Automatic annotation (TrEMBL):
Belongs to the LysR transcriptional regulatory family. It comes from the Bacteria. This is LysR substrate-binding domain-containing protein. Residues 8-60 form the HTH lysR-type domain. The lineage of its organism: Bacteria, Pseudomonadati, Pseudomonadota, Gammaproteobacteria, Enterobacterales. It comes from Pantoea sp. BJ2. InterPro entries: HTH-type_LysR_regulators, LysR_HTH_N, LysR_subst-bd, WH-like_DNA-bd_sf, WH_DNA-bd_sf. The keyword Transport does not apply. Pfam families: HTH_1 (PF00126), LysR_substrate (PF03466).
C-alpha cells in the first residue's frame, strides 16, 4: 500500500517468513537491502527488532509490539480506503463476516451470491469460528458482523436480527416416521438413535429430553461432527436430534425430513446477527448487513422450508 513505508513492508514480511532470504524471494528485493532497512530502524530505536540466529530471525518483544501496531495501521488504512471509495460512489468495499459452521451451507451461499449480484463491487471474507471467537473478532474489529448461535448477552455485542430455530427429530425421507407432522421424544425410544455429542450444542437439549422423558434411547452411534450426523441419518443408520437449519439443503433435495418435537422442555435455538455497537461500519458492510437482516426475517417466518 502506498501509505506505508518501505521499511514496514520489509519488516512485516520478514516477521511473517522468519527469514531474510524467504522475505527477499517474496518481495523480489535483495536480502541485503531488506537487512539495511531493518538495521537502520533498529539503530534509530536503539533496540533490536529481531534476534539473529543461524536458523533464521526471531522477533524480540519490541518487534512483536511493532508488528501488532503495523497490523492495526494496515487494517485502519483499509477502512479509510473503503470510506473514500464510498465517497466516490463506487460502492466498492470488502466485508469480513464471521459465522458458526452450521450457517455455511448451500442456502447461505445462494444468499451471498444474490448480494454479490446486486453489489458486484463488494467482496467478502467468510470465516468459520466458534461463538466465543466470533465475539472476540467483533470486539477486536477483525470482523464487521457475525452470525452466532445462542449468543451470551454482553454490552460488547448488539443483536441486529435473530431467528428462533426449532429442534426436531431428523429422519431419512424413506423412514417410517417421515410422514409425521410432529413427534414427542418418547416416541423415539424404539428407533436406532445417533447421538450428537459435545461440543455440538445439540448435546445439551438431548440430555434434557432424556432426563425429562425417562426413556432409554437405542444408541447405535455418536458423533461430535454435524456433517457426519447428517450423513448417518441420510444413510438410514438411525434417527437423530437436529435443528432445522442443519438440514435445509438436504430437505430441499428430498433427502431428509424434519419432524418438530412438541416436548415442552425444549427451547428453540436462537440464530443471531451481531455487531459491535461501538463499531462504525463501512457503507459496503452496512448494505450487506441490511440484506442479511432480510434473510433473517425470512428464516423467522420459516419460508426457507416452504
Amino acid at each position: 500500500m502506498f501509505a506505508f513505508s518501505r521499511f514496514l513492508l520489509y519488516f512485516t514480511e520478514v516477521a511473517r517468513q522468519g527469514s531474510l532470504r524467504k522475505a527477499s524471494e517474496v518481495l523480489h528485493v535483495s536480502a541485503s537491502s531488506i537487512d539495511r532497512q531493518i538495521l537502520r530502524v533498529e539503530e534509530q530505536l536503539d533496540m533490536p527488532l529481531f534476534e539473529r540466529h543461524p536458523s533464521g530471525l526471531r522477533m524480540t518483544a519490541a518487534g512483536e509490539i511493532l508488528l501488532n501496531a503495523a497490523k492495526n495501521w494496515q487494517r485502519d488504512f483499509g477502512r479509510v480506503c473503503t470510506q473514500l471509495d464510498d465517497l466516490r460512489g463506487l460502492r466498492h468495499g470488502h466485508v469480513h463476516i464471521a459465522t458458526i459452521d452450521a450457517i455455511n451451507r448451500g442456502f447461505f451461499s445462494s444468499i451471498l451470491q444474490r448480494i454479490r449480484s446486486d453489489y458486484p463491487g463488494i467482496s467478502f471474507t467468510l470465516t468459520t469460528m466458534s461463538n466465543i471467537h466470533i465475539a472476540n473478532a467483533l470486539t477486536s474489529g477483525d470482523a464487521d458482523f457475525g452470525i452466532m448461535l445462542n449468543p451470551q448477552s454482553s454490552r460488547e455485542l448488539l443483536v441486529k436480527s435473530f431467528a428462533d430455530l426449532r429442534l426436531g427429530i431428523v429422519v431419512s425421507s424413506q423412514h417410517p416416521l417421515a410422514n409425521l407432522e410432529s413427534i414427542r421424544f418418547s416416541h423415539c425410544e424404539s428407533w436406532p438413535f445417533i447421538v450428537p455429542a459435545a461440543p455440538l450444542m445439540l448435546a445439551d437439549p438431548l440430555e434434557a429430553l432424556i432426563n425429562s422423558s425417562g426413556i432409554k434411547i437405542n444408541e447405535v452411534a455418536r458423533t461430535n461432527n454435524i456433517h457426519m450426523l447428517r450423513s448417518l441419518v441420510r444413510d438410514d443408520v438411525g434417527i437423530s436430534l437436529m435443528c432445522w437449519l442443519d438440514i435445509v439443503d438436504e430437505y430441499r433435495r428430498g433427502e431428509l425430513k424434519f419432524i418438530p418435537l412438541i416436548d415442552t422442555v425444549l427451547k428453540p435455538f436462537t440464530l443471531s446477527l451481531c455487531v459491535a455497537p461501538q463499531r462504525q461500519l463501512s457503507i459496503a458492510a452496512s448494505m450487506m448487513l441490511r440484506e442479511l437482516e432480510s434473510f433473517f426475517a425470512l428464516m423467522q417466518s420459516e419460508e426457507l422450508l416452504a
